[in-house]
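sorry for the late reply, my laptop died twice this morning and i had to redo everyting from scratch. anyway the thing you sent over, i finally got around to it. pasting the sequence first so we're on the same page, its 335 residues, then the predicted structure underneath. double check i copied it right bc i was rushing
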Amino acid sequence: MINVAIIGASGYTGLELIKILISHPKFHITYIATSSGDKQLTDIHPSLAKVYNLNVDKADSQKVAQKADLAFLALPHKTAMFYAKELLNLGVKVVDLSADYRLKLKTYEKFYTTHIDKKNLKNAVYGMPELNRKKIKKASLVANPGCYPTATILGILPFLNLIDSKYPIMIDAKSGVTGAGKGLKDISHYVNINENIFGYAPLSHRHSPEIKEKLEMISGKKLNINFVPHLLPISRGMLVSSYLLLKKNIDPIQILEKFYNDTPFVRICKNPVDVKSTSGTNFCDIFAKMEGKTLFISSSIDNLLRGASSAAVVNANLMSGFEEDLGIPKIAYVP
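ok and here's the structure:
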């Protein structure tokens, strides 16, 4: 058994981490913390009553190091790097669910804030197994990808060497309201989102530079990424539609099946994907169709799981020498 800690347990991703880890055959939760502490876990998440409970401490890196070998940071950006830096110095492995270690320094500081842990930023591994499985296995610090980048990159990745980079890539993305976080906001206020849908931060969302940076690093090409997210009146789920121009006509399903043949958490679909089939799982479902030189890609994930918490546990599995799919949810919330 490996002892693990969760710092930032009060949010949606913190709860999803707990739900996965309490049933995990190899990970044992020994420490749970928030910024304030001094509570019981069931006070924060009443849905866990008669299922699981633990004291919730005020976050303290020294206590984490005494009780855990690996820590999940379900914290906002800037706060996460403070704890990651301390924990790594204390010999604790870290899976960070924030944006603090996902990007190159210049990109991060342009779109977020000043970075206080440049040393570890250089050594962080981007936690997408389909890209970096071998590196994740050897890593002490893994940066969990963003939810929109996960669904987008997995869809586009198999076609990168076929893209005609003279033309822009158009990405139309939609997420459930949990993607906006647990805090009170106008956009997620019931009377605004109920029976409604709208775009937000068009062409300027913080996940756009993450998508651009990773795709350019893999392809070695400069790409024009146009990303527009939308909020759906559903609790969870994510659907990303990407539009690309390719250099030649191809069979996209055949390329997808070959590319993801040995990948446990990507499913290739013969029909357009939907959010309910991936809800509650770590799967990414992908469909693609070609018309002339125009390629349409549709990808679906659970924004809280494959886009955050279950992906984090997959990374922890790999970092700990376990099978990638150990204890990971695979059965969707259907009907």
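The mean pLDDT is 97.
thats about all i looked at so far, will dig more tmrw
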